[in-house]
Amino acid sequence: MKLARTVVALAVASPFFVLPAPAQAVELGGYELKAEAAPIAMHIYEKLIPIPAEPQLEVDMSFSRANFSTGPTGRSVSSLFWLGDAVGYGLPELLKNPDAKYPIKVDAAHPSGPKDGKQELVPGTGMVSHADEKGTIATSSIAKPQLPLTPPAGIPIPPMLIAVEAFSSESKTVVTADKVTSSAYATAGSISLLGGLVQIHGLRSECTATSDGSKGTASGKYSWGSITVAGQTFAATDAGVQSPLGVTPLPKMPDSVVRRLADFGLTITPPTVEQKVEGAAAKVLSRGMTITLDTSVMKSKLSLSWLLDPLMALLPKELRNQVTPWLDLAPKFVFMLGTSAVEATAVPAFTDTPIAPPADTGSGSSGGSSGGGGDITPAPTGEPVPVASAGWPVFPGVPFWLVLVGLAMAAAVAGGLKKFAALMFGAGGCDLGAANGVPNLREQ
Amino acid sequence: MRNDPILELLDVHAAYGRIEVLHGVDLTVPRGSVMALLGPNGAGKSTLLKVVSGQLRATSGHVHLGGTHVNDASPDALARAGLCTIPEGRSVFPNLTVTENLRLAAYGGVPAAHVYDVAFSRFPRLGERSNQLAGSLSGGEQQMLAMARALATNPALLLVDELSMGLAPLIVKELYEVVAALAEEGVSVLVVEQFADAALAVADRAAVLVHGKVVATGGPDEIAADLTHLYLGGAP
C-alpha cells in the first residue's frame, strides 16, 4: 500500500521535476507578416495588354491576403474573384473615373479602418476581412453550405455539421507579445464530416511561418485527394501516396511526353513546398500544381499563317488594320492550383542596458581629488556595490564647478565674438545679409 | 503685398560634383507674391529649388531668407522656419491611404485634426477619398494630396516644382487657383514650371532660367511676350 502511494505521488509530482522552466518571453520591437492564398489562380502575361502590371491580367478565385507590420498597421482583403491589385485598387486610374471601385472585394485596415468588412452573397459564399491591433484575417469562400445533421437518437454525438467547401482560402496574421505568426490555406472541393472527424480533401495547400525575433520556423503542406480519419491522414502529395505503411512514389510522366508538351508551350510543374528560414525570418510557398501554356510557342509550332493570311486578305484594309494587332497577341497563361504563401520576420525590442559605473573603491571621506591620502580599499565581498543614484548627483566639489563656470564663460565669449567675426577677421556668414541663422518666416 | 523680399538669391552657384548647374543666379521673390520661374528642360530650375530648400549647398553666392543668410541651414531647420517644398512627382506614399499620408504631416508638430481640417476643406475631393490608397488616386488628386500635406504645415514660403506635370489642363487650372488663393492669404510662392501659361496666369512676377542663369525677369505679360525668344537663345 505504501509503495502504491509512493508511485502515485511520484506520478503526480513528476511533471514539476521534468518540465523546464518557461523561457523568458522576448518583447518584439518590429515585425512584418504576409499571408496570401488562392485555391485557383490564372495569370496572363501579354505585354500588349495596356495594364501597367506584371502579370497584365490575373484571375484568382476565392482570394485572400493579410498583411501586418510594426506600428501596428495591417490590411486584409478578401475577394471571390480577384483580378489583381492593378484592377482591384487601380480601377479609378484605369477607367479614368475617380468614382470607380472594384465591387467584388472586402477590405479591412488597421488603424485607418474599417475594422471589419463582410459581403455574403448567399449563405456560405462570401468574403470576410478583419483587422485590429493584434492581427489581420481575410477569408473568402464559395459555396460552403453548412447543413445541420441531426444525430441519431441515443448516440452521444452533439449536433454536427457537414461542411462542403468548393473553394475557400484564409490568410491570417497574428501577433502576440513574444511571437508573430502568418498562416494561410487554400482548399478546393473538400468535405468535412462530423465536425472534422472525417475529412476528405480534393485539394489543400497550407503553410505557416512564425518568428520570435531570434528564430523563424516554417512549415508547409500540400495534399491532393486525401482522406483524414481521426487525425490520421492518407494523402497524395508531391512525395507520393502517403499511408501509415510508408510513401509510395507517384508515377512520373515519361520524359519524352514532357518534352513533346514543352515543344508546344505546355509545361506542368508538380506540387512543391518551398521553405526558407534565415535567422528570424521564415518564408513558405506551397503550391499544388502549376500549368503553363505559352501560346506564342504554340502559334509558331502550329503555323497558322497559311490559314490566316488568305482570310485576312479578304478583309477591307481598315478592318484588317484593326484586327491584325489582336492576332498578334500571344499571351502566356499560368494556371496555379492551390497556392498559399506566408512570410514572417521579427526583431526583438532594443533594450538599452545601463552600464554600471565603476564601483567607488575609496571611502567616502578619503576619496576624490580633495586629497586626504585615504586608503584604497575594495568593497567588501557580499556588500552591495555603490552605483550612481537615479536621484540628484552628489555635489562634485569646487574644481568641478570652476571648470563648468569656465566653460560657460568661454561659450559666452565665443558667441559674442562670433557676431564680430567679420569685423575682427574679415570673414563671416555673409557680408550682404544678416547674421547666420534661420529666421521664423511666419512671424515676419 | 510687402515689397521686401522673403527670398533673395545673389550670384548663386551650385554643382553636382564637378558639373556646375547654376552659374550665378540672381533672383528675388517679394513677400506675399507668386513668382513663376520658367525655363526649358535642364535649365537648372529644380536644382535651384534644392539650393533654396537646403537639400543642396550652394558652392558660392548668397541665399537669403527673410533677410538672413541661410546658405548652411539644414533642410529641416528651413522647413521648421516656414519654408515648404512640394517636389516634382508629388511624392505621396502610394501604399498609404489619403488619411495616413496626411497624418504623416502631423509628425512635424501640427495636430492631425488640423491637418485633416485644412486638407479636406481646401480639397473636398480628398475627403471623399480619405480611405483610398494614394497610389490609386488620379494624378490631379495626388497633386492635391501633396499640396494639402504641404499647406497643413502653415508655410510662409512655398516652393512648388512642376505642378502641372502629367496633369490635364483643367486640373492644372484648378491647382493654380489654389496657389493664387494662397498668395492672397499672404503665403509667398515660388513656382517652377516648364509649361508657362498656367503659371503666368497667376504669377505676380516671373523669371526665366536658361542654362543655369536668369536671363529675364519681369511681369508675367512681359515674360509671356518674349518667352519663345528667351527659350531659344535670347540670353544676354
In summary, what is this structure?
The complex is a heterodimer of chains A (444) and B (236). By secondary structure, chain A is of the alpha+beta class. Chain A contains nine helices and 19 strands.
Describe the protein's architecture and organization.
The complex is a heterodimer of chains A (about 450) and B (about 240). Chain A is of the alpha+beta class and about 450 residues long. Chain A has one domain. Helices cover about 20% and strands about 40% of the residues of chain A. In chain A, strands 5, 6, 7, 8, 9, 10, 11, 12, 13, 14 and 15 form an 11-stranded antiparallel sheet that branches. In chain A, strands 1, 2, 3, 4, 16, 17, 18 and 19 form an 8-stranded antiparallel sheet that branches. The radius of gyration of chain A is 35 Å and the shape is extended. Chain B is globular. With about 240 residues, chain B is an alpha/beta fold. Chain B has helices at about 45-50, 75-80, 100-105, 110-120, 125-130, 140-150, 170-185, 195-200, 220-230, and strands spanning about 5-15, 20-30, 35-40, 60-65, 70, 85, 155-160, 190-195, 205-210, 215-220. Chain B has 9 helices and 10 strands. Helix content of chain B is about 35%, strand content about 25%. A 6-stranded mixed sheet of chain B has the order 6-7-8-3-9-10, with helices on both faces. Chain B has a 4-stranded antiparallel sheet with strand order 2-1-4-5, covered by helices on one side. Chain B has 2 domains: about 5-80 and about 155-235, P-loop containing nucleotide triphosphate hydrolases (Rossmann fold); about 95-155. The mean pLDDT of chain B is about 85. The chains are: A alpha+beta (about 450), B alpha/beta (about 240). The interface of A and B includes residues 90, 96, 114, 430 and 442 of A.
